[in-house]
Structure of NCK associated protein 1 like:
Amino acid sequence: MAYQQKLAEKLTILNERGNGVLIRVNYIKKICSDPKLRPSLLTDKIMDPAVKYINKKFPNVDFRGNNQHLTSIQRQKAEVMSAASSYYDSFLDVMEFRDHVYELLNTLDACQCFLDISINFDLTKIYLDLIVTYTSVIIMLSRLDDKKALVGMYNCAYEMTNGTCDSSYPRLSQMLIEYEQPWKKLHEDFGPHTRLVTSAVLSLQMVYPRRNLPADQWRRAQLLSLLSAPANMLDPARSASSACAPLIVCVLPVWPAAVSFLLCPSSVNSHPPSLELWKAALRSGLYLTLTRDEALNIHKVSEEVFDSHKGYGKRIADIKECREHAIQNNGALHRERRGFLRGALKELFNVLEDEPGLLGPKALYVFMALAFTRDEVLWLVRHSENIPKTKTPEDYVDNKMAELLFYMVKLKALVVKHSYVIQRYHVQYLAQFDALVLNDTIQNMYVCPEEESILTSSFVSTLSALSIKQGDSPPQTNTYSINAIRAVVDPLSQAYCSVNKAPLPLKEYPDLAKVMNTIQFHTRLVDNMEDLLLETSELSVLCFYPRVFEKMFQQSSEEPSVKRYIMAFPYICSDFICCAHPLCPEEVSLLPKNSAKTISTARNKKLKKPVPKKGEVEMEKPGAESVRKDRAVVTNMDKMHLTLTELCSSYDLCSDFIVSDHIINPAEFLLSHLETRLSEIIVKMANNSPPSQEITRPSDLLAAVRSYSASLHTISGYINLDVSRLVKSILLQQTQPLDSQGSKTITSLYTNWWVYLESLLRHASGSLIAHSPTMQCFINQPSDSDLSFRADEFSDISELQSLAQLIGPYGLKYLSENLMWHITSQVSLSPFLTLCSLSLSLPLVGGENVLKRMTIIGVILSFKAMAQDCLNDVIPFYILCIYQYGAFLNGLLPNAFVLQVTLNVFELASAAGFSCDIDPALVSAIASMHKTSVDEEYKLTCLLLVYIAVSLPSLALDPNSLYNKANGGHNNNIHCLAVAVNQLAASMFTIQGKDIEQQLEEFLLLASSTLLQLGQTVERVESKNRDSVYLLLHMIVEQSPFLSQDTLEGCFPYVLLRNAYRSVYKSCIVTLG
């Protein structure tokens, strides 16, 4: 009995086993042909004599006696056995697979099975699959050049170890020799099976032509169109053989060519239908896929095989004619079909997306569309790798492949999303239509055996009892298990009814067979939809064609109209995991690991631009991109905007997808790259050049950042991205010295420019740049050495406000810390000079040096105060609550509060931009540098103030000490001494716990006394800038929160200050109107 032979089970198992063996042989071929992966046994120079000797003497390799060629194997026999065992076992698997195939083929012939693709579809399909798989295994084995060396080395090592050869070696070596010419041996092996093979292949003559029509006939028939007949839109899609509709088309050319022609050529000469089917297969393409990226040149092989047989001379002429026909017509034929499918899939998707309920009756259309598209994609991939010599090579290039893949992916996603619609529809269809049709078909049978009658009646009852309530709730998670129903119509039952003398022969009841095939397809739509989608749309083979895949991606990315579909390429990578096979897990090592890098590299390849001729084109002026007389004229900006829009639209393909156990979210991937690029662009826009000490003005950079951010916000109109969060995150990183990538930020660049490079402050200490209290900025002084920048363009209120907006409180704090470092370096030297002078009991020397350092400190503190004021101006627009809180605490803080609490409040207020009586940053910096006792530090501080006070008269000797009425300060910046004395004294005495007011009053008395001595100077030369120096006392008191005008008047006559102001302003010319 057929069911006792278990023919269908054996066919199914052998097919799966054969696929694994085929992949394993292909893997061995790949690693043996790759110099980097080639086994060490074949690359070691010590083994070269053994390899050559074994290849020459195989299979009779004699290692006895003093054979010098095999000495290397003798010395390392254990290592050789271990290294070659996996390859030897793989070849044994091939031999075992061959034995089982021949045994099963003999059994099928003995049972006189009947095979017809339109009647017992599943059984015929797996039978032909097995023939194709077995043929591919043998061809791949013949292409493996190192098979003799690997098998021979293992057997030599085995025999040296065990004293006898491996028991399987004689048969295995004989098989390898027999299949050195595979087609000759295959022709001999399949000679007894010609009848069954031919009958199975000839059943394709009705299916194959329908699946290979040109695009014009598809278009006239309105294939896959749901809108061609609106009145019939709700009618279920049916065909004469529904199960053949999702059949994988790319396998069809292999069957008649490899099976009928190459294995059983006699049928081509003796049977006209076979000849026509064979010619149709030869005209359909030039290459057939064996496995992965291994292809077979069908015309070349056919010509060689037929040439070796007598009586087939006419067939060689047919082969040449078919090859010429394929070269001339196939490229254009498939180009037109891809063009038709692009429109058909787009229409189908749009209709089904709008009305997903149509997926129920029109599910067959979806799977047909996927199968057609998959066939066209694989045909192009297969032939793009081996483009023939033709006058139209552009037929093998498709720069719109992204659109075809895009709608293929969208259709798959639509089926997965609304799978419950298809399930529920076909559960009801099986119960309310298929069951009735099957019952009528059974009733019309003129004879039905009792056992089969009981079985079919039970089957009809089971179908009729199906209900959508059997699925789980909610509907989106409906799962139906109807394995028991499928068991009646699967290949097992087909095998039972397809053998000779079957109680119910299917060939006598074709209507029953077609109904059973239809039911089989409908049951798969209920509980096996994932496998059906895999069969009709899986494109994992693309991972073995990286060059073609890269080329397609590059061509599509250069076509503006398909940029919106470009995301289909990375999404297709999620299919790559489907190509893995449990019999060859090592193959994963051959798969591309850096496909993202490969695609990125392909996209970033730059075309060489032609060198412009001299005087050819004049540079366009700013704004030229917006000038046009006709809206129809497309400008560069229009093209760039369209390109950006199309690329953004491509991200709507899916929210995420899985590639090799990694979940890829395109939007988040884009967001991470935008974050990196935006950081780099902002830093690049700063245009910092350390050699020339140039940098972009903060206001210009702020305007550029705002413009760039506004452009980025337009992306959110196309992609679901939180651009505001992205920009805020980037700008927050720019307030730190380093960003998340460890790169320099604009905070670091501007701090280096202001402080480390001292482009501004160093020139200020040399009187090349002056601080202007009136204009609240630094200005250039007239000098012989011209500066490379204008100080007021980087330090006025608008620039510092822009800087505060760019780097924020964090950035200004970092800037302040660097300023404090410079101040502490100046402070550490000033007390040292004072101490040295006093210890030597000599007159004070180096007073100019001390005052110069104090002036530098004052300039730094003046710049810091300006930056703090600008921060105070802009911070209410960003963090109003902290601004108000800081203002409240700073205004209500009592004088007698705890010192540490006071400093903490001042630090909060300073972060909000408020000026404080005591600078917390300066206090912290000075406190960190003190290493002696408090009393000792107090003495040094007092001595420093004394040194400053008694040195003030020397400033009158400097011609640059003249007070500038327009700037409101002195030309040599000595007016900054007021800030330096007040802030430095307040900070030092705060650390030492002394009364700041009392110490400053003592300083004021001493400074007044020394300055009054200038009035007793007889020589006019020494006191020419006396009036300008007198103003310093007024500035110190005016800028101090601890001194008052009453204190000043008590130690310095006010009349002198009044006369000093009159003297410095007497030459000022006032113009009105």
